[in-house]
């Protein structure tokens, strides 16, 4: 077991990190919890941030198929939900009659990462408090000024106590057309003892007006690194 412990210490540069002798270091080594993405299925639409997002196909005619309100994708590993925001008549002068109004909705994807189940240990999380690095990429769909929200919480053993959290809700500039991936990131550091779970939630705004127009996401990640930024 000492050999496996030494491997972990050497490969992950854990000098100075508490490493109790009673831990199953072979299992920790095989789990490789440090430096890898702990989120499952980080590209649910099958798209990479290294490739431009696909341009929407505009037909201008309603489809014969039932209306869609969720984007296509493989959402294995994610819990998903939808919030209908209704039709948006803002910007239309009084008395003006329009045939179609945009209908917006939030599409929410979330995961809870069990840090100990992924191979991390109490002494590392409580005493060393390694950096927890969050990254996400969303499509600049220009459907609305607000198309993306992210909230990440570090939770205690009861999955309810919030030890630290970070939220992002950017405002988009619709004056100039741009269609690319936009990245957001955050590093949790020095967050205090007791963290056992990471709750990752992002919301993407979709639009339906004759046709369905989604806001896509890719490259979501939660990575624990054997570093401490605030030291």
Detailed description of the structure:
- The chain is built from 3 helices and 9 strands; from the N terminus they run ααββαβββββββ.
- With 231 residues, the protein is mainly β.
- Strands 1, 2, 4, 5, 7 and 8 form a 6-stranded antiparallel beta sheet that branches. A 3-stranded antiparallel beta sheet has the order 6-3-9, with no helix packed on it.
- Strand 4 (148-155) and strand 5 (162-168) form a beta hairpin.
- The longest helix has 10 residues, at 2-11.
- The radius of gyration is 22 Å and the shape is elongated.
- 24% of the residues are buried.
Mean pLDDT: 89
Can you tell me the overall shape? elongated
Cα radius of gyration in angstroms: 22 Å
Total helical segments: 3
| Strand-pairing-aware structural class | mainly beta
Helix content: 10-25%
């Amino acid at each position: 077991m000492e050999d496996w412990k030494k491997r972990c210490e050497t490969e992950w540069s854990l000098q100075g990190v508490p490493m109790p002798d009673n831990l199953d270091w072979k299992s920790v080594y095989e789990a490789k919890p440090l430096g890898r993405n702990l989120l499952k299925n980080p590209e649910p639409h099958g798209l990479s941030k290294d490739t431009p997002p696909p341009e929407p196909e505009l037909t201008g005619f309603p489809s014969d198929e039932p209306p869609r309100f969720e984007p296509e994708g493989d959402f294995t590993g994610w819990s998903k939900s939808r919030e209908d925001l209704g039709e948006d008549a803002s910007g239309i002068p009084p008395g003006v009659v329009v045939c179609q109004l945009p209908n917006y909705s939030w599409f929410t994807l979330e995961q809870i990462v069990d840090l100990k189940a992924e191979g991390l240990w109490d002494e590392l999380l409580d005493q060393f408090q390694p950096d927890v690095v969050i990254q996400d990429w969303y499509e600049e769909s220009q459907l609305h000024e607000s198309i993306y929200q992210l909230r990440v919480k570090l939770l205690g053993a009861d999955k309810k106590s919030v030890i630290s959290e970070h939220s992002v809700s950017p405002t988009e500039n619709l004056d100039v057309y741009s269609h690319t991936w936009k990245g957001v990131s955050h590093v949790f550091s020095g967050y205090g003892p007791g963290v056992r779970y990471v709750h990752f939630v992002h919301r993407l705004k979709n639009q339906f007006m004759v046709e369905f127009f989604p806001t896509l996401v890719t490259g979501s990640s939660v990575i624990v690194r054997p570093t401490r930024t605030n030291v």
